[in-house]
Design brief:
Chain lengths: 227, 284
Amino acid sequence: MLTLEDVVIRYGSATAVDGVSISVEKGEMVALVGPNGAGKSSIVNAISGVTPVASGTIIVDGASAQVPEGRQMFADMSVDDNLRLGAWRVKDRNPAAIYELLPDLARMKDQKAGTLSGGQQQMVAVGRALMAGPDLLLVDELSLGLAPLVVADLANYLIELNASRGTTILLIEQEVDLAFRMCARAYVLEAGRIVASGASATLAADPQLSAAYLGGIEAAADRKRTK
Amino acid sequence: MNALLIYVVSGITIGATYALIGSGFVVVHRVTHVVNFTQGTLAVFGGLISYSLLSFSIPHGLAEVLAVLLTGLIGLVFAFVTIGKRGTPPLTALLITLGLSILSEGIFVTIWGQAPIAPEGLGGATVLLGASIENQRLLTAGISAIAFILLGIFFGRTYLGKGMTAAASNPRAAALVGIDSRRMGFIAFAIAGMLGGLAGVVTAPFSPISFSSDLPLALGGFAAAVFGGLSSPWLTVVGGLVLGISGQLVAGYFGGSYQTVAALVMLLVVMIARHKSLSAEEAK
């Protein structure tokens, strides 16, 4: 479904992503984790086509859509308009199916997106991405700035979406424990390079890897408990 | 009382012209962040093209509509020159529009000469509350009102209009859903061309235009657009009407030579008053 081969992304003379190779099979839910500034968002924006790659290849077998970092609402427009604009590239612009999937959105369809809470906006962002009928859903920082309970709801929804519809999901996430709970397989990105990959359970169980690149799964869990 | 009414109605028609031109500034600025100083030029194109089409015996109505459409096309050509190259900074684009405006003056003189031209408009006058008002002025007010309503419907109700608003509101999110901001910019320039062209077409019959009319028209439109923070079409309409009516009152009671001074003073006051909001807009 998604193949990145030796992808390099540069901003001027700075190299943000340096020779990254990733593959995601159809129907998989894979995490790309790493600290802030590792190059995760550059990769996801390159997959979406909004950031050019300096070299390497990106192959997406089907349509992709992105739930962007920070939600990126059309703030002065209604939820309904936000959803419909998500279907810019496709013919079916009726959000009825999305309202059926996410009934909360139907209740707030006439509200301006800018007036919603962070969690509600994230739900709109997910719905807007789904309006494009994607085979591959790119979710950039699902948990950013959201309360744990809200994140848990959104995570459950994405897991359900993956299981019931077979939508392939690439989850880009700083919250390592969340990413490992959601995805069976993961890549670890550090300073623009993949430093580890494999089954999430294996990665989480590796104390050296956890301490060196992930800030410690236990530490992450502790941080979450103290929030 | 009659004089006051005439000044106010004249002011409304001139204000509607400023509002049309100002709306062109706003439409382009919202989508591209470019201050398009060809707006006055496009109005001159509209008036002069309608004059030529009428002189070729093309009937009224059709000639004016064709003039507006052709001016929209000229706006599109200006867009390709101004923002055709991806990543052109807004300040560079502004300078390009100034260059296009100067170039167009040469075209005006070459094709239409230097003398002011007034295409034939709607003749006659209507008596309102004892004051005789030219029908062309009433037509200007009516057509402008229809244009603003259509503009509101376009941006508020149509998918393309909402896409343009989205591109203006959040270019990054727009790019992610597949909206091409540059293409939206081209459409914005074409719409601005038609708005400017319409202003020239309806105004020229009672206010003859020449190659040098672009600057005063652009200034009036820009002042109206600044009143709307270069982002609100409705406040631009209000700004245009305030500018038009106050200008006519000043001209009527203090002399025509003070009209431009009044417009410039108002522009200055509005720019100072709105400085904070414009700065905030720039910071976004």
